[in-house]
Amino acid sequence: MPLHITKIAFRSESPATLRAWLESHAGEARITTRYLPKRVAEMAGGSLYWIHGHMLVGRSPILGFEETGQGRYWVRLEPRLIPVRSQPKRAHQGWRYLEGEDAPPDLGHGEADDRDAMPPALLGELSRLGLV
């Protein structure tokens, strides 16, 4: 199973705005990181899982990593957001690894997550208590 990474959807108001940002990039979307992951070889076929509101909300397949020429790296992503079954995930700086067996499953076409119907404050509190 491939290795994945997680990252906060910084400056994204909602998963819909994240999707719009990703889809606005033709060919590939890029985010900048300071350090190349040490386990980059294990990430072939992996995805970047986006955190929004302390929940994993979607993933973007990783196309690869590339030097920017300024001492940083680009994480090259497919310009799409694949919805996943939401799963609680604490906020963190930078990115973190996510093992394949711990990654939430994708939602099917037209399938909705039952958690989407809950008010965000209630969902956040239930997640904090470990009940969802």
TrEMBL record:
Pfam families: DUF1489. InterPro entries: UCP032025. It comes from Sphingobium cyanobacteriorum. Residues 108-117 have a biased composition (Basic and acidic residues). Residues 93-118 are annotated as: Disordered. This is DUF1489 domain-containing protein. It comes from the Bacteria.
